[in-house]
Structure formats: structure tokens, C-alpha cells
Amino acid sequence: MSRVWSFTDLEFVMLWAQLREDFLPRPFVFTSRTLRYGDYLHERRETWNRLRESSDPMFAGVLERVARPDVRLVVRGADGRNPRNPEGSIRLLAVRFEDRGYLLKQLPGETVDHSAGFTVAECDPLRLADVLVAELPDVPAGRRSSTLRLPGGPDDGLDHRPGMPRVWDSADEDERDAAAAFLRSPATGIGVIQVEQGRSRFGPRDRLVRELGWRDIRDDGRYVIYQEDAPVAIGAGPKQLIEKVNTEIIHVIEAIRDQRR
């Protein structure tokens, strides 16, 4: 059986701090509820002492692998009606390190900047897409049968990789109208999945990053948004989304293999 570890938000922060990393791994955030700095330092000491007394030897080395993976999947999702609604906040990190796989999840707190805790779960490194998509709201594929060419992604307030083209390609009026109607349609959920190369022999600038978006349209279904010569959207249920994520993982794996030759 795969192991699952649960931590409070401060416990996870203290464990990650032992790696001497400057920040929590994306897309995770931490906001303390303690107002006085001296009290916060006291909480950190107490938390670390408690962790040392109750540490699980099977957890040793897990976060080191998470910090330096071969492949990293970063997921940030939000309520499409109100991105600041904490109940709709999704923060997931799935990683593959050699023959190990892990899924990390930040539990929603009282605001989108707070956390009710973190879980770290072992998973099959070859099924990262499956375990990740299983954590998203279960929404069927959108009913639009054709692929929609978009002038750009929806203004969703989420972080996006810079440099994505925003050029409107030559499309007829029907295509323009369909894209405009799609972007105006009320969305119950929105999000971004970044598939990243964890390490590169040539340094951080040469790490390959691929990106998918999703948009859950009210009374319709889910669409995955990805980049061809321009952004496009197509209806995608869980199976289709898993296939799309796996395609992006393959691109990253191929880049890793090319760099090792």
C-alpha cells in the first residue's frame, strides 16, 4: 500500500526549511496566523521539536526527492466565479524522481493564502497524470464537438508562463464568434497545469516547461486549453485530460534523454 503522510502547514514549512530552500515549492504558499514575530519563532521551535520526536523513518529523503525531481507537475486551480474563494483553491505538486513518484497537496484554508495542512503521498511514477487528474473536480467533457481557436487564454488571475503567443490568427467570423462566446461563458472552475523538466545539465534556463489550462463551463463541461500555433480549446473529460498531460510529460522526458546523450 502506498504511504501517505499528513502535516500541519507549519510542520511542512519546517520540514522544507531543512533543505535550505528559500521558498516552498510551487504552487504552495504559507501564511502564519500568529501576529507577533517572537511568538511565531516560538511556534517554529516547538513544531520542530515535536517533529524530531515523532519523525517517521520512512519519510527520510522524500522531500529531497521532491526538491530535485526529474519531472515536476505544478497545478493551480481556482473557482471560476471567484478566484479568491478558498473552497475552490487547488494547489497540487506531482513529481517523478527516478523510480519514485509523489503527489503533494495543499489543503485549502480560510483564505487562498492559508493552508489547512499538507499531504504527501507515494504514487506510481508512471501514473502521475492519473493521480493528478483524480484530484481535480470530476467534470465531464465539454459538449462542443470542434476544436476552438482562441485569441488568448481567459483572464483568470492565475500565474502563467511568460512568452505565450497572444496573436489572433486569420479566422473567419464564425470562428471568432465561437471563441468569444466560449470565453464569455461562465466558468465554475479554471486552472493551469505546468509540466516541467526538474533538472538540466545546462542549467535552469534550459529546462523545458509545457503548459495546459482547463476551464469548466457551467452547464456544459470541461475544456483543456493548450498551445498549437495559437491557443486552442477542446472538450476533455478525465480520460482525455490524462492523455493530454501524459503527452506533455513525454515531451519533457524526451528533452531529458536528449540532454543526456
Annotation keywords:
ESX secretion-associated protein EspG, alpha+beta, EspG, 10 strands
Tell me what you see in this structure:
Keywords: Chaperone, Cytoplasm. The chain is an alpha+beta fold and about 260 residues long. The chain folds into 2 domains: about 1-70 and about 85-125, no CATH class; about 135-150 and about 180-260, no CATH class. Helix content is about 30%, strand content about 30%. The protein contains 6 helices and 10 strands, in the order E-H-H-H-E-E-E-E-H-E-H-E-E-E-E-H. Strands 1-5-4-3-2-7-8-9-10-6 form a 10-stranded antiparallel beta sheet. The longest helix is centred in the last third of the chain and has 23 residues, at about 240-260.
SSE inventory with pairings:
Blueprint: E1 4-7, H1 9-17, H2 37-53, H3 62-67, E2 71-79, E3 90-97, E4 100-108, E5 115-123, H4 128-134, E6 148-149, H5 173-184, E7 187-197, E8 209-217, E9 221-227, E10 231-235, H6 238-260
Antiparallel strand pairs: 1-5, 2-3, 2-7, 3-4, 4-5, 6-10, 7-8, 8-9, 9-10
Helix pairs in contact: 1-2, 4-6
Pfam family, one: ESX-1_EspG
Subcellular location: Cytoplasm
Protein name: ESX secretion-associated protein EspG
What can be said about this structure in brief?
Pfam families: ESX-1_EspG. The protein is of the alpha+beta class and 261 residues long. Helices cover 28% and strands 28% of the residues.
